[in-house]
Amino acid sequence: xxxxxxxxxxxxxxxxxxxxxxxxxxxxxxxxxxxxxxxxxxxxxxxxxxxxxxxxxxxxxxxxxxxxxxxxxxxxxxxxxxxxxxxxxxxxxxxxxxxxxxxxxxxxxxxxxxxxxxxxxxxxxxxxxxxxxxxxxxxxxxxxxxxxxxxxxxxxxxxxxxxxxxxxxxxxxxxxxxxxxxxxxxxxxxxxxxxxxxxxxxxxxxxxxxxxxxxxxxxxxxxxxxxxxxxxxxxxxxxxxxxxxxxxxxxxxxxxxxxxxxxxxxxxxxxxxxxxxxxxxxxxxxxxxxxxxxxxxxxxxxxxxxxxxxxxxxxxxxxxx
Amino acid sequence: xxxxxxxxxxxxxxxxxxxxxxxxxxxxxxxxxxxxxxxxxxxxxxxxxxxxxxxxxxxxxxxxxxxxxxxxxxxxxxxxxxxxxxxxxxxxxxxxxxxxxxxxxxxxxxxxxxxxxxxxxxxxxxxxxxxxxxxxxxxxxxxxxxxxxxxxxxxxxxxxxxxxxxxxxxxxxxxxxxxxxxxxxxxxxxxxxxxxxxxxxxxxxxxxxxxxxxxxxxxxxxxxxxxxxxxxxxxxxxxxxxxxxxxxxxxxxxxxxxxxxxxxxxxxxxxxxxxxxxxxxxxxxxxxxxxxxxxxxxxxxxxxxxxxxx
Amino acid sequence: xxxxxxxxxxxxxxxxxxxxxxxxxxxxxxxxxxxxxxxxxxxxxxxxxxxxxxxxxxxxxxxxxxxxxxxxxxxxxxxxxxxxxxxxxxxxxxxxxxxxxxxxxxxxxxxxxxxxxxxxxxxxxxxxxxxxxxxxxxxxxxxxxxxxxxxxxxxxxxxxxxxxxxxxxxxxxxxxxxxxxxxxxxxxxxxxxxxxxxxxxxxxxxxxxxxxxxxxxxxxxxxxxxxxxxxxxxxxxxxxxxxxxxxxxxxxxxxxxxxxxxxxxxxxxxxxxxxxxxxxxxxxxxxxxxxxxxxxxxxxxxxxxxxxxxxxxxxxxxxxxxxxxxxxxxxxxxxxxxxxxxxxxxxxxxxxxxxxxxxxxxxxxxxxxxxxxxxxxxxxxxxxxxxxxxxxxxxxxxxxxxxxxxxxxxxxxxxxxxxxxxxxxxxxxxxxxxxxxxxxxxxxxxxxxxxxxxxxxxxxxxxxxxxxxxxxxxxxxxxxxxxxxxxxxxxxxxxxxxxxxxxxxxxxxxxxxxxxxxxxxxxxxxxxxxxxxxxxxxxxxxxxxxxxxxxxxxxxxxxxxxxxxxxxxxxxxxxxxxxxxxxxxxxxxxxxxxxxxxxxxxxxxxxxxxxxxxxxxxxxxxxxxxxxxxxxxxxxxxxxxxxxxxxxxxxxxxxxxxxxxxxxxxxxxx
Lengths: 321, 310, 670
Hints:
The complex is a heterotrimer. Chain A has seven helices and 17 strands. Chain A has helices spanning 2-11, 35-53, 57-81, 197-200, 229-234, 267-283, 303-314, and strands spanning 22-23, 30-33, 85-88, 94-95, 99-107, 114-121, 127-131, 136-144, 149-151, 156-160, 167-173, 179-182, 211-217, 242-247, 253-257, 287-292, 295-300. In chain A, α6 links the parallel β15 (253-257) and β16. Chain B is an alpha/beta fold. Chain B is built from 13 helices and nine strands. In chain B, the strands form three sheets. In chain B, strands 2-5-8-1-9 form a five-stranded parallel beta sheet. Chain B has a two-stranded antiparallel ribbon with strand order 3-4. In chain B, a hairpin with a 4-residue loop joins β3 and β4. Chain C is α+β, with helices and mostly antiparallel strands. Among the domains of chain C are: 10-185; 340-504, C8orf32 fold (Roll); 532-570; 578-663, no CATH class. In chain C, α2 (16-30) packs parallel to α6 and α24 packs across α25. The radius of gyration of chain C is 38 Å and the shape is elongated. The interface between A and C is large, with 50 and 63 residues.
């Protein structure tokens, strides 16, 4: 079994993840007839018997032309795949349970296009694409995710039956790419630990101070209590109404702490709960920090902060995080 | 041809500035290239490495008038743009221009101010004009903003949002001076005194002329293909979270043109692109998986190494 | 679940354009079959195609499967009714035609379409069972292009039709060399491999072994070629060109049939006199007859000669046959003949044609001499205003009487029959000889073409002191038929085959060219049999061309072709900037000392790096880099200067760059 596997790895040039760009050299492209191809060959055989039997000279010519066509089809199919360059692209992080999409870029350095290339990740659905001449094409390969952490797509099959469908040329590639899978957010989690500060450890800062920041022209939608009446009076009642503007976003500061979760929770349950809270806190525009064993992320705001928090949760306990 | 050879004075500027800001010729050149390309500069570094001095020296040598604004959390847009004050004598509002009305503006600790104030500044930078009370006022030409940002203290700051970072053509780090430079710094006279002794090498008009000669610097098809390949690579490669935008690619080409101009060439070489790439691209690119902390230099080097010259 | 499985089995569904292509393929494949298929089949097939087209046009549902099953059944019954059985060429082809038409009706997925297309390929082959002419080959090639384009469209939906057609043409052109090599070298086997069905060779036109009034004139309407002749020397005059076919002795009052005869491998007469060498390429006619110029001087291989001096093949001629011969024109075979034969040559049916018998008896009485009777008869034809025509009036029971005394209009078979009848009635042994007379030389390739319209019947009479003497009564009526051919002999306005008419010279010219082409086609394409293959290969220098050496040569040549095509497949058609090519060359050269350029390295940086590592190369490197920069990054400059044409300037720079790179001397060790 091991020997068979080793042979397969040698034959298909599988040496683990490859660094970009991967070029499909002729040694890596394999060609075999498809079922229609075998049918085609069989019907040529029957036709040959007929031509011999009836001494059809033109019949020979037709059969030989079709034989030539079959051979040419092999080379066309081979050519459609060979020397293609494949570069791994990015894969946006997803939550566990969602479908990850791995992007691959196919470069065609030839002056004619490549058509009907099918890519498949494992046993997943085929994705077909054309690669125009001298241009890259990007494909997204879907892969279902189950658990958090880095997800590697593994072996990708590239195949084509173009142009006649009689022959299948294929190659295996294993580009070095990975997708970050965040923990699945807990479906029915309790609300953010905002109020009961003492118990949950959530710390809530006061509402942002409403600082006066300036004046601008009044617009009908402005609340009347923001009209700068004093300025109006200063102008002697003439001139336009001005509206007072206030600075300072209402910001809440929130600590999401691993240790404040119920002690009965296991690692994954805690991660799942924290993920849910991170999402909630982000959507409410709060300032939040994250504290889990071995990692402290000081409170901050924004998309990047949110993502780094999620990443910490995704990679919790994994080496080389 | 004549206007595509750089002003000889610009070398004087580089030379003179190098005498005050020690061991930072590359940064000086980048700052000048940024200025030539009509961009703005973001310096991100620890306090005390000479950000203010660099700005001051450049303003002095280029003969530009210079304002410095220290951003604080209670600063309002009006504090930088200016306010209209009711003049009892004329019975009308009188606009009092804020500190932004200068040819070179140093904004210290840009991340201290609230987003509202920041965006007021960035709008002015982008449009080279300010609009208050329905009236549009142009800013002086040339107009060059050097903003500084302290990367270490995050609490109580408002880091510039990603979309706003794009408004800066370049982001550079000054870094500590090397051994020899620091020794010279310690042994030499006070930097601020030295600034006072500097005499301008150029007039503001020279700078505007130089800026307009930038378009004469030729970028061949092969070079444009290179810039495009770089941008496309960042959009595809898994190392980056988001790729360079078309605006970023344009910025890269403009900065490379300016760099070529500083090198007295009337055409852009791939080397020019590579020279400005770290400064132009580092604040627009983010490595995928936010936690991994590759420096801007490392990231740019990786990008250059990954894209063959077309 | 079951439904899902079936869906998967059908493959991807067909698009509308796929369907249209499929219909076109079927139409193109089936159309030439209409020539020979029974009328009901052509109508049914055409109807089904039209129906399928209507379904496509109106976006209707395909008919249900039970209806198709019913149609299959009905079609099979109809085939059975037409041919009485299912085996053999005609019913087989008819069934295939039906299946293809019905397959279109149920093609929903790609898999069905593939089956239909392979069936199309197969049906293309069946055209050749009926005719292998150039025209059919042309139609076949057109159909091949379309079918292959459809196949390409199935593998990649959504490409424009023109691209598919271009691709399929390209692939077929690339397949041509393989076809040639295989055609020439594939070891040929002489068929048939198994017994052929009886109807395999039906439908061939040609002489028959009976002659009745109208049988030859009917044949004369056909312009089809009977055989071609290539004379080695100067061709004999037209009136010597009697191509001997079946000899008919037995007369039943209407039909003439051959009598009993024996065959021999030896000539029954002594060949003497000057001879003419020629080669005949005989079209298949499903008979054993080998036509030869009277009288043959030798026997071709595998041939025998009958006691009536007719050459016969040992097997029926079912493929085009080429044989070389010599003949003695004008040879009278000799005076020895069996009494049995002579007796049979006097046979006459009793009780009919009394007036002819009476006239013959009267002449016999008056003249006495055999030769005088013959002269009297020929003179009679000439004197009594007999007309030589392709459209004689029909004759009744006493046909000879009616012809001789009433209608006086007839074609060669009428004259030959009347002549022989009169001779026998006068007591002179006589017989009818059928065959071909004349032929037309194609000035393009020198071949003589003998058509069915040259079919002829003449007479032989036995003169005791001479032997069998050829008498052609037609020559008495219409000498020009014998001298110049049919078109000259019959009155104007008669339905002479279009191609035989002599008045349209440009048409004749065209016809000659076309027939010369056809002849080469026959000689080299259709007539390429095991024997020809051996001849050709030994002429090409292959000693002892047996199947092993042919297979070896085939393998070698196919391998070479494969290599060439592989090279084409691996070729990258990218035109690099010549400056970049030179720059890459420099990098290759530098790689020898470990200073290859990094892919991302700019020219100035690279020059600097090399100069630092190898200061002795600094000057050259700097210059080459400067040239490269000005070519690749500063091209505008030379264009703009205007002093010299930018292209020329660039060319000079490039030349200098190439020279410098070529002249760069790099020493591995310092």
